[in-house]
Amino acid sequence: TLGAVPDIVRGIRLHFHQLIEGLTKVAQDKAQLGLGHSYSRAKVKFNVNRVDNMVIQSISLLDQLDKDINTFSMRIREWYSYHFPELYRIVPDNYLYAKVTNLIRSRDELTEDKLKGITAILSDPEKASAILQASKSSIGMEISEIDLLNIEIFAARVVALAEYREELHQYLRSKMDQIAPNLAALVGEIVGARLISHAGSLTNLAKYPASTVQILGAEKALFRALKTRGNTPKYGLIFNSSFIGRAPKKYKGRISRFLANKCSLASRIDCFAEHSCKIFGEKMSEQVEERLEFFETGVATRKNEEVMREAVDEYQSSIQLAVKQQKKKKKKQKKEALEGVEVAEQVEVEVEVEDDSTKKENSIAGSPEVTPVSKKKSKKKRKSQIELLTEGIENYKVDSSEKTPKRRKKLRTS
To answer: What pLDDT does 349 receive?
Structure first.
């Protein structure tokens, strides 16, 4: 019976247009297409994870930009090292190397006039003087003007990419403060965004247990360990957090388990809380710090119940402050609106006073008052409407006075 029912349903779906009169195959296909479009439209419109998509896309773009900037910077170093190889050792940073390359261009043109610009870029006058001395005794080859122009254009592109990467990082930080403030306060916006991206959404991350969050991102190592019956990984993406890097080697597994537990709690608070705040994340980070101190010094940590009570009290006080601020804003808006109405009334009064003064001046000068046609027409219309209303009321009174005695007579006769 279990296998027969799906076959029957499949047959009805396949021959549905033949079982109903007036329904063609083309109309059925159009109806199915419209239903699919309406379902997908509703899914996009009421998507709970719609806001998370911006975080997922931005962290993916940020990782891609890091790879591209690193690759392009290495290309600049190899390209410009033919002409000035000593600069690589003096300026190891990729972004600063590209900016200095764009400023120097040819090492033969490097003079003391450009030292101020190099010092402003590196913020170190000793390195700027070292670059000037190295340019005088460089072993690099001579490069044509066209090659230097291409290097300069490429260096400018790399500098623009690096600056855009910083802007994107600021955007990601602001979005994480809005979407998952507790998770960002606990492990940082970069690690938190990677966890959300790997899970697919903040809701999916909140549904994961702490054991899954701990090894999230190390699936290959986990399955390899299960296949070869080796040791399973202790951490995944949360390894990039500063807490695990600061922990001693023998306590890294314990800290990663404790941190994964706190990350799971923080993601659930961010996902299902009505008001967003980062109080719980800050308290959880304090707990992780205390646990690190416990491993190093043996000092006892506070209980989780005490910390959560403090966090709840601060959360309630913050909500009360937010409500008070909203009330103050509403009062200010009302005051501004009333002030605007008063100003408008004063302007109207001033205009009326000016009109009266102009009328008086015209009457004193002997010029007759000119009334506009529209006002005369409006007055006539009002008079006619008033007269019609009075006539209607009088007619109604007369009709009612004539009808009432007849009814009384009929009642008496009956």
So the answer is: 72
CA trace torsion 392, 394, 396, 397 (10° rounding): 170
Alpha-carbon separation of residue 135 from 110, 139, 141, 145, 189 (angstroms): 7, 9, 12, 17, 42
Query: Within a 10 A sphere around the Cβ of 133, how many other Cβ atoms?
Result: 11
Q: Nearest-CA neighbor of 179 among 191, 189, 164, 194?
A: 189
pTM: 0.67
pLDDT digits (tens, 9 = 90+) for 328-357: 888 888 888 887 777 777 777 777 777 777
Closest to 263 in 3D by CA, of 171, 192, 342, 369: 192
Q: Which tokens belong to 334?
A: 């009302």
Residues 232, 226 contacting (CB under 8 angstroms): yes
Place of tokens 């006619």: 384
Contact in structure between 191 and 240 (CB atoms under 8 Å): yes
CA max distance for the chain: 137
The number of helices, as runs of H, and strands, as runs of E, in the chain is 19, 0
Asked if 255 and 243 count as a contact pair (C-beta separation under 8 A), the reply is: yes
